[in-house]
Amino acid sequence: MTHRRKFIKQVAAAGIAGTVSPFAVFQKQQSPAVPGQGFNEEGNSLYVGWAVADITPERPVALIGQLHKRISESVQDPLTATVLALETLDSQGGKEQAVMVSCDVIYIRAQTQKKLQNAVAKRLDGFEPAKLFLNATHTHTAPGFIDGEFYGLYDTSDNENIMKPSEFEAFFIERVADAVVSAWGNRKPGGFSWGLGNAILGHNRRTVKSNGTARMYGVNDSDFAHYEGINDNRVQMLFFWDRNKELTGIVLNTVATAQVTDSTNHISADFYHEVRQTIRKKYGEDIFVFIQIGAAGDITPVSHEYTYKRAEVVMLKRKGISARQELANRVLQAVDEVMPVVRDNIDEKVVFKHTVAKVELPVKNPPSPPFYFTDSVKPAEFHVLRLGDIAMATNPFELFIDYGISIKAQSKAILTFLVQLSCQHSGYLPSERAAQGGGYSAEKYLVGPEGGQKLVDETVKRINQMWN
């Protein structure tokens, strides 16, 4: 069976809600919005639009994320890009905007985001393209965007049957631009609510030895001393509702990257595919599920954690489910936990602010440079948003959790959503203690702890300015 035929068969089996064909952009069908009309005409009215693009490659690709070349053999489940378009209009005609795109890829490249902004600018009037930003779920079973960015590690230039990263980028931009235009055109009056739940999804993967050095996954070493950092088992959620208070979509923010089955030769969105399926089965097949990954540079899914791994495997067999489904079930339980209260706390009049920040971060010479091209941090781009009592802030790194906790603790927002691997890709950003311990993820970097502190300070400053 050819790669394309396998893809068609498996996408059909996966059952993405609303697809017309395996390669179609799909969205919840709505009539066009008329800004300024609808409920809450006084004050700030919120308009919400959704769409999803299927970004699954139509040919074999090199799968990025392991330190050896893997060529995709089939499609385990489809890759998608979910679009959330937001706009507020006040009684004087003032407006604020944002278009966010969550992508089943390993990272976002600065050039890719810029190309998408340019493509959208040609097709949308009244939208400021700089207010569009992308984030990645960090699946290791998807292609990259730039030819040669890993210094030949994943080179496939000798095989014309394999889709090159640059070809995937063009394909990606075309599909996602269509979805952005669709989501923006589908803006309708709506409201939002927020929730905070719990789910054990991620685990700190860095361990410290008795001599003070560190490495990943060393808990079973005889000289193991302690874990280097903490975990974060919170699930942060945003719920969006239509004018009839019917749920249209959910934003899920966790520290668990899409790396449960990251070593296969199959294209896959990893366990977030099961997350979407599980939520839609419970709450409606047309519900949009938007994934954000918080500060998770030193975090791995709990399926990789060793202490309880043997027992977890036995428990999965007893339950008759996969590790991916187990994590999806935990996310669903977190959603279920808060759903009764978020339905009763929908904000229809909101304060919405969006700042696009560009800050120069100091570059530090690490023990060894990253094994891939990094996007410049001279300057680095990040976005800061306020939506009611909630703040959201992006960053272009695999950001260690210490920085995330520091930002959240100093934020004036009731709840702060951090979104890593957004706008560009500038590698790991290790904490001070991680850089001292060394080891993978803390020795190959562009920006070190000094730059990490500046990122924290600049992010907190911009968040808190929105409450002044």
Helices and strands in order, then pairings?
Blueprint: H1 3-14, E1 45-54, E2 74-75, E3 80-89, E4 95-103, H2 110-121, E5 132-136, H3 165-185, E6 188-198, E7 202-204, E8 206-209, E9 214-216, E10 224-227, E11 234-242, E12 247-254, E13 266-267, H4 271-283, E14 288-293, E15 299-301, H5 309-319, H6 323-342, E16 352-359, E17 380-387, E18 390-394, E19 398-399, H7 401-410, E20 415-419, E21 428-429, H8 432-437, H9 449-465
Parallel strand pairs: 2-13, 4-5, 12-14, 18-20, 19-21
Antiparallel strand pairs: 1-3, 1-6, 3-4, 6-11, 7-15, 8-9, 8-10, 11-12, 16-17, 17-18
Helix pairs in contact: 2-3, 4-6, 7-9
What would you say about this model in short?
With 468 residues, the protein is an alpha/beta fold. The chain has nine helices and 21 strands.
If you average the pLDDT, what whole number results? 90
Uncertain spans: 4-43
End-to-end Cα distance, whole Å, is 61 Å
Query: How much helix, percentage-wise, in residues?
Result: 25-40%
